[in-house]
Amino acid sequence: MVLIMSVFESELEPITETMVTFETKTLFDRETKRGLLGRNEIVTCAGIFGKVESAFITQKLIDDYTINNVFLVSGAGALTDELQIGDVVIGEAYHEYDKRLKENEPNPAIRGDLETLSSIKNQFPGVKRGKIISGDQIVSEKLFRDELYNRYRALALDMDSAVMAKVAHVNGCKFLALKIILDKSDERTSDDFNKNFSEYNTVPATILCEFLKNQFVAG
């Protein structure tokens, strides 16, 4: 079974309006839907914000359903000026940049589902692929953005992908995040997000919807 999650309900609309829905439930005040998209049985859920919510909602849905693949479709900030507003980034690897570590404690990146990533990129060659980093803050300073890029060489940052990748990994599930760039993680972050969200927020789910309609995703 495939789990598809997002931060905002509108980000999931290309999928929830296309899928054949069998069941609708409420989980911690969030609506979940179970149904079919192509040959894939899927579960959808929106309404996660930050690392804690992302982790416990993902774990709860994995516990409640037989999940093999986890996808996240939502927005992100760019870490490099090579990315433009409206670019889509799919994560090859995921890293928590603000995790508090003990001395000599490793903080490895979690690898994404590279096989599915390659299949999506073959169908949508314009998407970018690279590392995505996550932390519990909205980055709105170019100096800090550049420090993060120099440290991790990631393409994009958000508040959820890395912990969801970790939860998926420890449960033996494959994971991919499809992220639309809505801002440049600089002093214009808030204005850019508000300006660009309505135009671009459904793009990642549109790509994933088209992919899943024609491809069976096996865990």
Q: Can you describe this structure?
A:
By secondary structure, the protein is α/β, with parallel strands linked by helices. It has one domain (2-214): Rossmann fold (3-Layer(aba) Sandwich). It is built from seven helices and ten strands. The chain has helices at residues 9-16, 50-64, 114-123, 142-152, 161-170, 189-200, 203-214, and strands at 2-6, 20-27, 30-37, 40-46, 69-78, 88-96, 110-111, 128-134, 156-158, 174-183. The protein has a five-stranded mixed barrel, surrounded by four helices. α1 packs parallel to α7 and α2 (50-64) runs parallel beside α5 (161-170). The longest helix is centred in the N-terminal third of the chain and has 15 residues, at 50-64. The radius of gyration is 16 Å and the shape is globular. The mean pLDDT is 94.
Question: Which short descriptors sum up this protein?
Answer:
219 residues; globular; Rossmann fold; alpha/beta
Task: Provide a quick synopsis of the model.
The chain contains seven helices and ten strands. The protein is α/β, with parallel strands linked by helices and 219 residues long.
CATH homologous superfamily (4th level) name:
Nucleoside phosphorylase domain
Helix content class = 25-40%
Following the backbone from N to C, one meets helices and strands in this order, namely EHEEEHEEEHEHEHEHH
Biggest sheet features: 5 strands, mixed, barrel
CATH class: Alpha Beta
Quaternary organisation: single chain
Number of helices: 7
Total E-strand runs: 10
* Helix and strand composition category: alpha/beta
Round the Cα radius of gyration to an integer and report it: 16 Å
Strand order in the sheet with the most strands: 5-9-8-6-10
Proper CATH architecture: 3-Layer(aba) Sandwich
Query: How would you describe the shape?
Result: globular
Spans where pLDDT lies below 50 across 5 or more residues:
none
The total tally of domains equals 1
Strand content: 25-35%
- The CATH topology: Rossmann fold
* Arithmetic mean pLDDT: 94
End-to-end separation: 8 Å
